[in-house]
Amino acid sequence: MPDDNRTPVTKADFEIGIKGFRDIIDALRDNLRDYIDERTRDMQTELLRGFRTYQESMSIKMAKLSADVGNIDTATDRRLSLVEERLAELERRIAQKGF
Predict the structure, then answer these.
(1) What is the dihedral of CA 52, 53, 55, 61, to 10 degrees?
(2) What is the CA radius of gyration of the chain?
(3) Beta-strand runs (E) in 35-92
(4) The dihedral of CA 87, 91, 97, 99: what is its sign?
(5) Of the candidates 43, 24, 44, 42, which has an alpha carbon nearest to the alpha carbon of residue 32?
(6) Of 43, 47, 23, which Cα lies nearest the Cα of 35?
(7) What spatial distance separates the first Cα and last Cα of the chain, rounded to whole Å?
């Protein structure tokens, strides 16, 4: 390429410049694609870590809730058994008195 700014550019000079410009654009595009791919993978990893933490927390909460419900069921069953025993005792007393 001519060094003097007043020298006209030839078609060959122009094509060499365009080729160099295209090479630069292609390299920038490839670098940008690699950068975006890397950031996307990093973001996916962070999301998976966040979901795993949330899932572990929810798993603990669900286990507690399940235990609480189980305790409520057990307590309800025991109380119902006591009521049935008392009712049976009342029925025996009534039957003995002949009402």
Answers:
(1) 160
(2) 41
(3) none
(4) positive
(5) 24
(6) 43
(7) 124
